[in-house]
Amino acid sequence: PAGAAKMMVDVGQPIEVFTYKPSTYTDGPLIVVFHGVGRNADDYRDFAITLAERFGAIVAAPRFDKARFPYEAYQRGGITKHGQAQPREAWTFSLLPRLVDQLRLIEKRPELPCYFIGHSAGGQFLVRMVALAGAQGAVRVIAANPGSHLFPTRDADYGYGFGGLPDTLANDDAIRHYLEAPLTLYLGTADIDPDDEHLDRRPAALVQGLTRYERGQACFAAAQNLARERGWVCNWRKVEASGIAHDAPMMFAAPEVEEALFGASAL
After folding, report:
1. Cα–Cα distance, 263 to 256 (Å, whole number)
2. Which of 114, 134, 163, 238 could form a disulfide with 220 if both were Cys (CB 3.0 to 4.6 A apart)?
3. Facing residues of 17 across strands?
4. What is the model's pTM?
């Protein structure tokens, strides 16, 4: 429906989805928004209304509640559960094509193009999704201010790199496909508080940098350098939102979000 709404979408289990559709909507894309650690999908829908109105898009923000989707299942994507590897069909990532298909069905537009954007914990979810499961049908995947990154290396264990994963998920082909993914690292240049209460301070995260901004820059540089060394394609983009800290509404409202989503050319 036009305006703000909420619905339950069945993707094999019920997912609460908060939506916004401009009253002037015609044929714009679908932007799926992934919330942070607070699991506040309703707020993230509201933060993204600016995207809907600016780009003539439908916004949908699914809630991954903590009871069913704890840290391993959300930020880490469900690759493991209680430390044990899970089959691909059990990964949280596998829910996304079903979710998008249901939203397309509701809109009666089976070819509706979709974009994924996640902030903070949502950005972590999307980075790891792209690395292990691909873009899942999204035209572009935007990870905004993730607290840690998945570097294209086996020298760090999963969560921070490909180490410890089965060979089929961590071999050179897997890492090459990761670099080929349509990923944008969307970084606020003022997201530089090393004492932020939600910042990952595990040793493996601190190796990536002291702040989110440092970690994003370092991961992008690592991808560029590896692609250059191996002669691989790197389709990643890095877009910086000047002067913005760890603030989802500001990141979504910034002029630079257009480039993060759609590239140098406008819709």
Report:
1. 10
2. 238
3. 7, 62
4. 0.96
